[in-house]
Structure prediction request, 302 residues.
Amino acid sequence: MRIGMVGLGKMGANMTERLIKDGHEVVAYDLSQSALKAAESKGAQVATTLEELKEKLNPPRIAWVMVPSGDATVSTIDSLFNVFEKGDIVIDGGNSNYKEARPVYEKLASKGIGFIDAGTSGGVWGLENGYCLMVGGDNEVVSAAEPIFKSLAPTDGYSHVGPIGAGHFVKMVHNGIEYGMLQALGEGFSIMQAAPEFNLDLHEISSIWRYGSVVRSWLLELLEIALRNSSSFSEIEGVVVDSGEGRWTAIESIERGVPAPVILTSLFERFGSRGNAEFSNRIIAALRNQFGGHAVVTEEKK
Prediction:
């Protein structure tokens, strides 16, 4: 198939390369000239405008939008709406909020343009391992783009999970679960690090847990790689950002009345890692001193 890839960041560039390796023709677009040159060196045709991208694609055209969620995605899809024609298809493969999918779908449909929301997981390893794809959209539109999904995904790693919005909804929950798994790994290895009497080799433990252990996972494999390169992570600040999906999952659990204490706690831990808990901790320490005479640690005593 012939497809336009709009956005050549870490994900978009690797997806372009994977599609080309599987026999597809890719027309690549990005604002960065160096990104375009890199894609061209991998076998992609390049376009410097979305109008040029349209002209280099054969109708019915398919464009995969792989840019940061939010304003960048909205403006890109708006631009494609202006240049694409009836029968063309736009795929949003970023981490957009699933609630935004329906309005986008209806706007594009007013011009006869199809829309697919594709939850995409795989990160920088997707080129080699493939991308897990959770796709939402109308049956006929998804079917038209299915060869692309099957090329990007590993065997059994793609599913049409439901109607429009379902793809990004499932990916949102996926990322919320990821928050909890990351938090558990971080806490468990912190406990082991705090037991110097055993002189534990954390890299060795992460390595053996990959085989036969009930907690074996790809995240554990990645932790083993990280510990192989650094035993203390002293060069890394303990600040953990959240890109939005865990926060949306937490809100969703509240709105739907579904208890999700692990996901919520892991989200709050990320807030705390940025110093947002510092003042509240000072208040608690001051109150303990007031009602119980408990000692307060001052800057001089640290």
Notes: The beta strands are 2-6, 25-29, 45-47, 62-65, 89-92, 114-121, 132-136, 158-162. The first strand starts at residue 2 and ends at 6.
